[in-house]
Amino acid sequence: MYKIKVNSSHSFDVSKETMEALDAIETTSNNFHILKDNISEKATILDADFNKKQYIIKVNNNVYHVDINDALDQQIEALGFEIGASKKVNEIKAPMPGLILELSVAEAQEVKENDSLLILEAMKMENVIHSPRDGVIKSISVKQGETVDKNSLLITFE
């Protein structure tokens, strides 16, 4: 399932099957002919950032800013590690209920982005929770061996 956001205001859920069934043909580089409900549309990709999955598309002289999030992007967002917004994350919350197997940090410890903070066991799988940014650990709200619910506060940054 893809989450499509258009002009930062309209969101759509689009299945892989729907995307594959789209009747679109690339006529020239970045220009497409689309047939929907027997209506012909012309679309042009004006700008594309493949790594960020952001596109500017012109359809019938209307310009749209399109962001595409796949399953991995949605999971990252659910964990609170959105790209761009991740630098501002001040709290780490449990992405799912589970057991705290290991704490890798202590209060007042300085951490770098992607350092391991803790290991959360959920559904017999060990999930390593990494730091979303450089910072200092302000507080740790859990202890090793503790069971947590989804969205429980785990760690706070200064």
From TrEMBL:
Q: Does the keyword Kinase apply?
A: no
**Coiled-coil stretches, from where to where?**
none
**Domain Lipoyl-binding stretches:** 80-158
Q: Which InterPro entries match?
A: Biotin_BS, Biotin_Carboxyl_Carrier/Decarb, Biotin_lipoyl, Single_hybrid_motif
Extract the Pfam families matched here. Biotin_lipoyl
What superkingdom heads the lineage?
A: Bacteria
Is this entry keyworded Plastid?
A: no
- Which CDD domains does this UniProt record tie to the protein? biotinyl_domain
Sorted alphabetically, the keyword list is: Biotin
Task: Please report the name of this protein according to its UniProt entry.
Answer: Acetyl-CoA carboxylase biotin carboxyl carrier protein subunit
